[in-house]
Specification:
The structure is a single chain. The protein has 287 residues and is of the alpha/beta class. The chain folds into 2 domains: 163 residues, Rossmann fold (3-Layer(aba) Sandwich), CATH 3.40.50; 116 residues, N-(1-d-carboxylethyl)-l-norvaline Dehydrogenase, domain 2. Helices cover 49% and strands 14% of the residues. It is built from 12 helices and 9 strands. Strands 1, 2, 3, 4, 5, 6, 7, 8 and 9 form a 9-stranded mixed beta sheet that branches. The longest helix has 30 residues. It starts with a strand and ends in a 16-residue tail after the last helix. GO terms for molecular function: NAD binding; NADP binding; oxidoreductase activity.
Length: 287
């Protein structure tokens, strides 16, 4: 499978697309803002003006879009949507973080076109994408995964099979939720201790040496200590993922009060003007 289309050239999609080119794949690209594809075209990609055109005659379609709304538009628009351009047996890989409900619906639409589908949301951000160190969570049929294992490996250091379509998206939301709760709690603790008279960097230095602190949280702490809030995982997207997680919990009649509280924190961060900061930017509300 050497012919790939990538739909969505944001921070993650563009880096994944470049890795495909460097690995020798023939690449077609589409992005709503066409100028984002310029550097990839110089590397050999073919750029198209509609998703429908981009997915014609390819083996694999990689979708890397912001949210449900963006994905629905890209796939379902009547004249230009990718669904209308799919060929039989093309494998669609949904790498976006979307709701499990939409992933299942998209899978059904794609299978109705005699194409194939797996979901493969990613753990990691820009540095991991650049270095092919993303982690894919897989939902779908194992025989389809086997077909595209080499394609997924171009951008990843690990691939974990979770279960049927919807399960990998659910797991991705849970992973982001767990991470987001940790960052919100850390921010609160830093704010409280600063009022006692213990400065932020002293606290972060100690926490980085303790077994209670996850490697991911140590990385967040490093950014906080340097006042570096470059948006690797922007607050706006964190809020989106928590909203999706709470909807998932509601659909399953599950109670997740800590996630609910964390959503409130990130929504307040948005209201305070920190939506385009990295997730660590929530600490600004407490210091």
């Amino acid at each position: 499978m050497k012919n790939i289309a990538v739909l969505g050239l944001g921070a993650m999609g563009a880096r994944m697309a470049e890795n495909f080119l460097k690995s020798g794949y023939k690449l077609k690209i589409w992005n709503r803002t066409a100028d984002k594809g310029g550097s990839l075209v110089k590397l050999g990609a073919q750029q198209f003006s509609t998703p429908s055109e981009a997915v014609k005659n390819v083996d694999v379609v990689i979708s890397m879009l912001t949210d449900d709304k963006a994905s629905q538009s890209v796939w379902l628009e009547t004249k230009t949507g990718a669904l209308s351009g799919l060929h039989k047996d093309t494998v669609v890989i949904e790498c976006s973080t979307v709701t499990p409900q939409w992933s299942i619906e998209l899978s059904n639409n794609i299978r109705a076109m005699d194409a194939q589908f797996i979901e493969a949301p990613v753990i990691g951000s820009r540095p991991q994408a650049e270095n092919s160190q993303l982690i894919h969570l897989i939902g779908g049929e194992k025989n389809i995964l086997k077909k595209v294992q080499d394609v997924l490996s171009v951008n990843s250091s690990a691939i974990h099979y979770i279960g049927s379509v919807g399960h990998a998206m659910s797991m991705k939301l849970a992973v982001n939720g767990l991470f987001g709760v940790q960052v919100a709690a850390l921010s609160e603790m830093l704010g409280t201790l600063s009022r006692v008279g213990i400065d932020k960097n002293s606290t972060l230095s100690l926490l980085s040496k303790l077994p209670i602190t996850s490697p991911a949280l140590i990385g967040i702490g490093l950014g906080m200590s340097e006042d570096n809030y470059t948006p690797l995982f922007p607050v706006d997207l964190v809020e989106k993922d928590f909203s999706y997680l709470l909807q998932l919990a509601k659909d399953q009649s599950a109670s997740i009060p800590m996630a609910n509280a964390a959503l409130d924190v990130y929504q307040k961060a948005q209201s305070s003007g920190f939506g385009d900061n990295n997730i660590s930017g929530v600490v600004k509300m407490y210091l």
